[in-house]
Amino acid sequence: MEKEKIMLEFENKYSKIGDFDYGKDIYEQQAKDRVVFDGENIIAFPDYVDFVSPSFIQGFIAVPIGNVGKENVLEYISFESPRSEVVKQIYNGLRRAM
Prior knowledge:
Elements lengths: L1 E6 L8 E2 L2 H12 L7 E6 L6 E2 L1 H7 L1 H7 L4 H4 E4 L3 H14 L1
Parallel strand pairs: 1-3, 2-4, 3-5
Helix pairs in contact: 1-2, 2-5
């Protein structure tokens, strides 16, 4: 099984990341061409990000959900951050999207 780690980068080193459309844009610009649906994808947030809104995560996973379905998306995509509170925010956002 292939494993792909995608380190996200944000303009101006934003510490707070939000907005559904921004999530979709970041997926399109930074992840779309690298996500593999026959393996594991680790989406990594940089350490300067200290808040990720549920709407950003919902936008980010909109395309993958369209490809594999809500019930399967977490089989292919996981999230990490050096900040444990950011990881909690991300997975809370995912629960809202599911």
